[in-house]
Write a structure and sequence with these properties.
Order of helices and strands: HHEHHEHH
Strand content: under 5%
Strand order of the largest sheet: 1-2
CATH class of one domain: Alpha Beta
Largest sheet: 2 strands, antiparallel
Shape: elongated
Length: 115
């Protein structure tokens, strides 16, 4: 690094600050995705993540419809568990429902023919 004068000190500090910010961004990007996904969310963060209102989320918690941790008075939501909960409540398509119905009919008919 080349020597700098006192007059250039503010510019050098600004450059150092920018470099540190870039390094922090790179470190954040390199952080394992699993750590980012397993983070705990507050009630407001979870409501924002799920795109529902806070009162609606409280209702789901009181009905035990959603995975939540409650150490003491505060509610915490695991981001990974919320994603799994969303995917588990997926509605089946008509094609999937028809396929399941056809399979059940086949099984029922096999049992009838067996008896």
């Amino acid at each position: 690094m080349e020597p700098f004068s006192f007059d250039k000190l503010p510019e050098v500090v600004r450059q150092l600050f920018e470099k540190i910010e870039r390094m922090e961004e790179l470190l954040h990007e390199l952080q394992p995705k699993e750590q980012q996904e397993n983070q705990l969310l507050s009630i407001t963060e979870a409501a924002e993540f799920l795109k529902v209102s806070v009162p609606a989320l409280y209702t789901k918690v009181s009905r035990q419809e959603i995975p939540v941790s409650k150490p003491g008075k505060r509610l915490y939501f695991n981001k990974t568990e919320l994603k799994k909960w969303i995917l588990a409540s997926r509605r089946k398509t008509i094609l999937e429902l028809r396929t399941e119905a056809a399979e059940r009919i086949k099984i029922r008919d096999k049992h009838k023919n067996f008896i």
